[in-house]
Amino acid sequence: MDVPDRLYHASAVRGRRELVPGQSTHGTWVYAVGDPILAACFLSTTGGDLTCAVGRDRRTGRPYLCERFEGAFERRYAGAAGSIYVLDGDGFLAGRTPWDEEYVSGRVVRPLSEIRVEDACEYLEALSRSGELALVRYPERIDGIPADDSDLVERAVLGVDRFGPDVLCGFAEYHPALMPRIRSALGPRRIDRTRSADNVA
């Protein structure tokens, strides 16, 4: 897969002169995407996919932001400000993460320019009004996201297997109603693996 000439990286920190690789589940990278609309969805990462799913609709090709519970959009983006950094695609790699929209670099990256965003809510709502972004409000769904949240239950179980029980704290905070289903899906592992989330739910 070819890397676009221009990439975009969103950050809550404005005025950055360089982007330094940070540790994540996939390695130590600077992350970027080839679409500034998708990048805007990461002006805040509060709750990650547990608050709003970000992707590209396979049917229409449009970027989307899909609430996973009522009020998730405001919970993630209210009061958030930041910048979208424009980057040279040279030196970035494709295919290093499960999301094919994502590109990574293991070196320090100096932005070419900066798009400052004062209010992420307003910015994303404006993109929605212009038709550039599909802002999908709960309980509506898009791109095959299941109405019963079974994908989140599966993600919780996989997260426990890979990273341990602490991952359940996020599920307990944002999706407490799913915790009985998650514990049931964990089966005999329930007592040991969900202990750290018991005080959150």
Characterize the structure shown.
- The protein is built from 7 helices and 10 strands.
- The protein is an alpha+beta fold and 201 residues long.
- The protein folds into 2 domains: 6-136, ADP-ribosylation fold; 150-194, no CATH class.
- The strands form 3 sheets. A 4-stranded antiparallel β-sheet has the order 2-3-8-7.
- Helix 4 (150-163) packs across helix 6.
- The N and C termini lie far apart (42 Å).
- 34% of the residues are buried.
Q: How do the helices and strands line up, and which of them pair or pack?
A:
Elements: E1 6-11, E2 22-24, E3 27-33, H1 36-40, E4 52-56, E5 63-67, H2 72-77, E6 82-88, E7 93-94, E8 102-105, E9 113-117, H3 120-129, E10 134-136, H4 150-163, H5 168-174, H6 179-186, H7 190-193
Parallel strand pairs: 5-10
Antiparallel strand pairs: 1-6, 2-3, 3-8, 4-5, 6-9, 7-8
Helix pairs in contact: 4-6
Uncertain stretches? none
Rounded to an integer, what's the Rg over CA atoms? 18 Å
What is the residue-mean pLDDT, rounded to a whole number? 93
Q: Which architecture of the largest domain does the CATH hierarchy give at level 2?
A: Alpha-Beta Barrel
Residue fraction in strands: 15-25%
**Class from secondary-structure proportions:** alpha+beta
Q: How is the main sheet built?
A: 4 strands, antiparallel
Shape: globular
Our measurement of the CA-to-CA distance between the termini, rounded to an integer number of angstroms, reads 42 Å
Query: What count of helical segments does DSSP give?
Result: 7
Helix percentage range: 25-40%
Order of helices and strands: EEEHEEHEEEEHEHHHH
Number of domains: 2
Beta strand count: 10
- At the first level of CATH, what is the class of the largest domain? Alpha Beta
What is CATH's topology name of the largest domain? Answer: ADP-ribosylation fold
* Order of adjacent strands in the largest pleated sheet: 2-3-8-7
